[in-house]
Design a protein that fits this description.
This protein folds into three domains: about 1-260, TIM Barrel, CATH 3.20.20; about 270-360, Sandwich (Immunoglobulin-like), CATH 2.60.40.1180; about 360-490, Golgi alpha-mannosidase II (Immunoglobulin-like). The chain is about 25% helix and about 30% strand. The protein has nine helices and 28 strands. The strands form seven sheets. Strands 19, 20, 21, 22, 24, 25 and 28 form a seven-stranded antiparallel sheet that branches. It has a six-stranded antiparallel sheet with strand order 9-10-11-16-13-14. The radius of gyration is 25 Å and the shape is globular.
Length: about 500
């Protein structure tokens, strides 16, 4: 659902035609849609809810709502309530940056002061749904543990907007310049404390080629909010996964499936961000603050502290330079490993995103699912382990839909793998913390990378089947979530 804070009193057909001629984003036949909201404008004007009564923007002109006025914010929330009641929980707060200098706010700011901070109040009003059981309450109702969590996708924001996620990075082109701009903007947002953002998959404007379709999808599908931006097919049919050829479609499927398999990791990073403020996607200089080389690296991304994403940002490139921090780094796709504190030349054919795993990692992943249904539970996990040892990991879980986690209704499970003589011992802690939907029994698959000699496996001293292929060993078993578990793999070379 896309909203703006304008209540139009008149249309601007020439402006609309001009913008569509440039951006080509309006479905043919809808160019002359009436954008006016005359009834709502009169209501807001009569009640003193407008910061300004005559603001011109892309698709019209009219009043801008004064969201510093608690009554105006409550009126706005009343208008949105039918959407929330039908299940809408993802809203794009579009625009919000056109407030004139002559505007005024209920809390005493003039238009020049209010202009930049307007997006904060706009986002807060949409995010903080008024509690219908207390019509006079304008406080933050999102802390109600039974309240469904929601996300605001804002075009504009200010200091403090981090609590009303997420932010849009701006209108980018569907090519390499857009990729480079999007990466830099996202990393800068992370430095400012924003965890949730997206550059849009393929940006706003321009047609894709097979190459740009593949390279754009590879990194943007892994961004904190992966919003797939499709233009009307009669205007641009190059953005669909099947637009060009089977290789392009397979590439899109590959990275969509990777994102879905990484959902347990994303969920963990979201909790860590909530608890610490460290963004989900971050510039390497946040993770490796003493490595001064990363002060000038603007095209490598850390997804949490474990995965390093290094998108291809140049036309025709089938390899790229990657600056490696200290430690051991492993290729996610192959059995190649590197000693860190150097720069490598990474081979990246068209269907491969350069993706590295930090050594000493236990990465929680899930089974492939096509969507996230209501009531989804992480009852099927894969723990991928990369040396050197000890290797560590963590998994946060919660009900996935409410704000009960704000009252500590979540669980934390820790993992550790360490070498003992010629065996690998993997310890899984009992889940610490609780929530109503905590799974009792979870299907676990342990995947140990970079070994060749595992012959047997034990779970709590009972032998279990293990399976090996070149460089990888895996075991699968049922684990009671509130119990500790010890897995032993041996012998280990």
């Amino acid at each position: 659902m896309i909203l703006t804070s304008y209540l139009n009193t008149r249309n601007r057909p020439f402006q609309k035609w001009l913008l569509n001629a440039f951006g080509q984003n309006i479905t043919p036949g809808l160019e002359r849609d009436d954008e006016r909201a005359l009834i709502e404008f009169k209501q807001a004007k009569d009640r003193g809810f407008l910061a300004h009564q005559n603001v011109r923007w892309w698709f019209g002109a009219g009043g801008m709502i004064d969201f510093t006025n608690p009554s105006a914010a409550a009126w706005w929330q009343d208008k949105l309530r039918p959407l929330f009641e039908t299940g809408v929980d993802f809203i794009k707060n579009d625009d919000g940056e056109d407030l004139p200098d002559e505007a005024r706010s209920a809390n005493g700011m003039d238009g020049r002061e209010y202009h930049n901070i307007y997006g904060f109040y706009y986002g807060r009003a949409t995010y903080q749904r008024k509690n219908p059981e207390n019509e006079n309450s304008h406080t933050d109702s999102t802390r109600d543990p039974l309240r469904p969590r929601n996300m605001i996708f804002a075009r504009s924001g200010w200091v403090g907007s981090q609590r009303f996620p997420a932010l849009f990075l701006g209108d980018q082109q569907a090519g390499y310049e857009g990729i480079r701009h999007g990466i830099r903007a996202g990393l800068n947002l992370g430095l400012a404390g924003f965890s949730y953002w997206t550059a849009d998959i393929f940006g706003l404007m321009g047609k894709t080629t097979p190459e740009t379709h593949m390279r754009y999808a590879q990194w943007s599908l892994l961004s904190p909010v992966a919003r797939y931006f499709v233009r009307p097919a009669k205007i641009d049919n190059t953005r669909f996964p099947w637009s060009h050829n089977s290789d392009v479609e397979s590439n899109f499927r590959k990275y969509t499936e990777l994102r879905m398999r990484l959902l347990p990791y994303y969920n963990t990073l979201a909790h860590e961000s909530h608890l610490t403020g460290i963004p989900i996607m971050r510039a390497p200089l946040i993770e490796f603050e003493n490595d001064f080389r990363f002060r000038s690296v603007d095209d490598q991304i850390m997804l949490g502290g474990t995965l390093m994403i290094c998108p291809i940002v140049e036309k025709g490139a089938v390899s790229r330079k990657i600056v490696l921090p200290e430690g051991i780094w492993h290729d996610f796709w192959t059995e190649t490993s590197w000693e860190g504190n150097t720069t490598i030349d990474y081979p990246a054919p068209l269907d491969r995103l350069p993706l590295l795993v930090r050594g000493g990692t236990i990465l929680p992943m899930g089974a492939l699912i096509q969507n996230i249904p209501d009531g989804h539970a992480f009852d099927n996990l894969e723990l991928h382990i990369w040396p050197p040892y000890p290797a560590d990991g963590i998994f946060f879980d919660d009900d996935g839909y409410s704000t009960a986690y704000l009252q500590d209704a979540f669980s934390r499970t820790q993992f550790r793998a360490e070498r003992k003589e010629n065996s690998l011992l993997i310890r899984i802690s009992a889940a610490q913390g609780n929530f109503d939907e905590q799974v009792e029994v979870r299907r676990l698959k342990i995947v140990s990378h970079r070994n060749n000699t595992i012959e047997s496996a034990w779970l709590n001293s009972e032998i279990i089947p293990c399976f090996s292929e070149p460089g990888i060993t895996h075991v699968t078993f049922d684990h009671i979530a509130r119990h500790d578990a010890l897995i032993e793999l041996s012998p280990l070379s």
